[in-house]
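Q: Could you fold this chain for me?
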Amino acid sequence: MVQFVGVPQMRRWIATVGAEPIVAAMMDAVEEDLRHWRRFDKTARIASHSPVGVIELMPTSDGAQYAFKYVNGHPSNPSRGLQTVTAFGVLADVSSGYPVLMAEMTLLTALRTAATSGVAARALARPGSTHLALIGAGSQAEFQALGMRAAVGIESVAVWDTDPAALDKFERNMRGSGLRVRRASSAADAVAGADVITTCTADKTNATVLTADMIEPGVHVNAIGGDCPGKTELEAAILTQADVVAIEFEPQTRIEGEIQQMPANFPVTALWDVLNREAPGRTADAQITVFDSVGFAMEDFSALRFLLASVHGTDFVEEIDLIADPADPKDLFGLTVTEHARA
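A: Sure. Below is the predicted structure, expressed as structure tokens.
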């Protein structure tokens, strides 16, 4: 039997425990795995692109457990009443090859993306950061806002989106959160005075939602929206003026991240090297730092193992009969024969 967390269970788990406490705890799981990145098989996501979107597989293993995520990205989906991104994932035991957990990962990915942004901000944002600017008020926005509070103590959020309905949604969902929310009139208005800027837009294009003239000394930028070839959010000049550009897995980020705009020899720093103090992160309050995040399979691995540990033995998980398991492991055909036929 395989442990299974579907959408109803995931919704109840998040509603019961709370998105922010989950993200806060998941940060530690993500950081622990990133600190031990040398254990992992690291493979860039396997992507199948079409004119309207992308479907991807994201696998990794630490030698004891194996995980993969199936995920899509279709920016035009909301116009058809569909999610831009959907996902599910599997965690398996390497010693037997048997899956031990299957889970929905549309909600879980939002939590792990916020957790990963939080890990980066803990390492790179200047101490005392209290003001967040969000450019993009879509599916990630609320998770990012709560995650930044859990990570660095954000107290206020300025948010901007070209879609007024998305801004309405964000304000509605943030009521009662304790965060002070300001609806900005433009991207430039949103980022003015920000300690941390998160860009999380969905359009599959080389966009410029954040320009170099908007960047103030000391800011940390979490660029999480650019995640495939031909999709960026930052003006290239931001990357050249940054003191630290931290990334996940370089072969993947070079193709999919903001640094796809830059020459092949453009210098970057692996986030896990910063966490392990093998590379410098922020060394002065006035420095500009960027986390060029495209999402990497190790983070999904962390989220799945965290989920399993969190829900095991609770009513947030059920068992499903996913794997054929005959009494005689060599008699698979026997499972297809009824007792009447045997008689």
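A (continued): The mean pLDDT is 94.
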